[in-house]
Every structure is written in structure tokens, then in C-alpha cells.
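Methods, example record. To illustrate the input and output format used throughout this study, we show the complete record for 4-diphosphocytidyl-2-C-methyl-D-erythritol kinase. The sequence lines were provided to the predictor; the line carrying C-alpha cells was produced by it.
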Amino acid sequence: MKIILPSPAKINLSLWVNGKREDGYHNILTVFHTINLFDYISIQRSGHLELNVAGSTSVPAGGDNLIIKACDVFYKHTGIKPKVSITLDKKIPVGAGLGGGSSNAAVVLKGLNQLYDFPVDDEKLVEMASEIGSDVAFFIKGGLAIGCQRGEKLTFYGSQNFDILLVFPNIFCSTAEVYKNLPPLNRNMEIEDAERLILIPLMKRDYKTLRKNMWNDLELSQADCVRKVMEVKKTIEDSVETRVIMSGSGSSLFAVLDKGKKEKIDITPLQRKGWWVKFLSAI
Ligand SMILES: C[C@](O)(CO)[C@H](O)COP(=O)(O)OP(=O)(O)OC[C@H]1O[C@@H](n2ccc(N)nc2=O)[C@H](O)[C@@H]1O
Ligand SMILES: Nc1ncnc2c1ncn2[C@@H]1O[C@H](COP(=O)(O)OP(=O)(O)OP(=O)(O)O)[C@@H](O)[C@H]1O
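The corresponding predicted structure is encoded as:
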């Protein structure tokens, strides 16, 4: 039996850093939303575990791939050694702040659970996902969610539908590097603040207020890649005359668009720079 699963990307509508933790991670408050940009993952029973990657040369196919890490975590918690052949068709830009690898890991956990007749429930899947990375737990359910602690403690709010302009400027951002080069930050942002600033304007479709309130503390990082992204951000804002912010640890940048706005935006000046430019939607 072969299953083919879509693996969506995400954007961070906001991200505040509340402070550094003893374990070297940062306590953050972030608002996630999945978008209609997908990798495709096929999984079928086989004599042994193998992974083939198509569509990208910058994604490892061995033990460093988050898909293999997901298989290891599945075995650790269920005692079932996955004997599957997995093919990853990579479409999501890598190192782009879009959670591609995290999404793949979550989707493979769900796919293995389905192939092996559901040995664990969703709650256990979220726990297993949190062991793989800070963004992975979000992708077990997706849609609109607020994440706190490392980003793995989640509150889900269904999903909203809005248009975005997404630009990937072909800059690789290492998440660890971006966090390592942050200035000291000690905010006290709570879930209620994210609901007031982001979720309520979003649900009311008050995108003007939403754009005003959106924020990403990782734009303050002095990592080289972020300084380059900030130059790109200025170029995009001048070109499309609307607020743009970096997604996650970058390098992607996006704008939330009013309905009907995308028909009025000429993206050719941005495409001429060799950047990956797409009109997409939240899902
Ligand atoms: C930037 C975001 O993508 C926003 O959604 C996440 O915070 C990062 O999630 P992720 O890519 O799954 O990150 P992980 O693979 O868990 O961690 C990579 C590295 O980023 C840093 N890291 C990550 C998450 C976090 N809350 N604090 C951190 O300091 C740590 O140095 C960690 O070793
Ligand atoms: N299945 C995978 N897909 C993409 N990247 C992977 C995968 N497995 C491991 N990686 C590695 O993870 C790193 C970046 O992954 P990813 O594309 O998720 O970054 P990102 O979009 O910035 O994610 P995030 O928003 O969580 O920081 C790269 O170094 C990449 O080689």
C-alpha cells in the first residue's frame, strides 16, 4: 500500500522572543499559519527503510534528514521499526523560514501511524514531534496556532483564509545562527497579547491593523543572512508599497494582502532580481 501526503509550509505572522532558557533555546511566542505551498511525500511498505529526495540538492537523504529522525522517533515510541520506502518531492525552499523540514517530519509521523494501524493517538504524535524540532508539533494539525515555550506548546484556532505575497530571495538562513546572534531580549508576551494583536484583526479581516501589529524579533538578529534579508525587505516594501515581514528565522519575507490587492501588484521587478516570488493563500 502506497500513500502520498502533502506536506505544507508555514509562515509566522508574528514572533516575539521572551528570553533565553537554561537549555540554550529561547522562549518565544509565535503565531503560525500553514500556506498552500507543499512538498509531496510518498510512503510505501518495503523490505527496509530508504529515503529518496527529488527536487533539491541541499537536503540530506541520510540520517540528518528530519524524515529519518521522524522514523527513529516513531520506532523509539512504538517499538515498530519502519520498513518503508519514502520519496520526498521537495518544492518548499530550504532554509527559508517556511518550516519545510519540520513539516516533512510531522507528515511522516502521521503517515507511519496510518500505515501501521494507528499505534499512537494525536496527543502522543505531538509529544513525539516535539522531540524532533520546535516547529514540528505545529504541523501535526496545522492551520492557525499560537506556539509558546520553544514553539512546541500550541493552542489551535482552526484556520483562516487570506492572501499573501511570498518572496524567497535565495539566501540560506541557519535557524541556530539567527538565534545565536540575537541581542538580549526579555519580553513578557502572553497568548492573550498575540490574540489581541494578531488573531482578532485577522479574524475580523482588518488587515491594515494586522499589518501594523505584525512583528518578528528575529529580524533584530545580527546574523549576516538576516542583514541581507533586511535589505531585501526594504526593496520589496518600496516595490509593493505594503508592510513585509520575515517568516520565522528567514530568509522568506511575506506581505498579508487585502482581497483584490494581488491583481494590482506588479511582481516583475522582484522576479527580475532572480527571487522566488509567489502569490499564495493561508489554508
Ligand atoms: C524560527 C522558527 O522556525 C519559528 O517557527 C522556530 O523557532 C525554529 O524551529 P526549528 O527550525 O524547528 O528549530 P530547531 O530545529 O528546534 O532548533 C534549531 C536551533 O534554533 C535555536 N532555537 C530554536 C527554537 C527556539 N525556540 N529557540 C532557539 O534558540 C537553537 O539554537 C536550536 O538548536
Ligand atoms: N526534509 C527536510 N527538508 C528540508 N530541510 C531539511 C530536511 N531534513 C533536514 N533538513 C535540513 O534542515 C535545514 C533547514 O530546514 P528547513 O527547510 O525546514 O528550514 P526552514 O524553512 O528555515 O525551517 P524553520 O522555519 O523551521 O527554521 C537545512 O539545513 C536542511 O538541510
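Annotations derived from this record:
The chain has two domains: 2-156, 163-281.
The pocket of CDM (ligand 1) is lined by residues 12, 15, 24-26, 28, 30, 99, 102, 133-135, 150-151, 175-176, 179, 248-249 (CB under 6 Å).
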